[in-house]
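Recall from the previous lesson that a structure prediction takes nothing but the amino acid sequence as input. Here we apply that procedure to Transmembrane protein 50B from Hydra vulgaris. The sequence below is the only information supplied.
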Amino acid sequence: MSGCLDNAHCPSFTCPDISERKNQIASVASGFLFFVGWWILIDAAANDPLKKDVYHICGVVSTVAFFMINAVSNAQIRGETFDSGCLGQTGARIWALIGFMLGFGGLIAACWILFGAYVASDDPNTWPGVAVFLQNAFIFFSALIFKFGRSEEEF
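The prediction returns the following tokens.
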């Protein structure tokens, strides 16, 4: 009885080589997360009876952060480009830092909105707060995927 599984073998799987499609996959995943984030917020805003439109500001800030983070390439941040541009490598690093600070700020503001205005209140409808948080989280993660999930050799 001790040798009943001696002839059982797990099938060997080969992973497909996605290195040549890395930019396409990262762009599609990033765009999908960005779309889903805004779609969730639009759904919550359409169904929210209280219509707290001021809470959408952190989503706009996260969108601006998405564009700021991805406006500079990784090569510009590392200083590997031939043209210096506006303020050179230091300017690119400052621009990306401000973009990341806006992205984190939007995410932290969304947490504050979720817990401060919806979870801690007596209102049983917390979906708009969850939607604001999910929107900002999806936009932030889409910016990270778009920034760090792509290779720059194919541009």
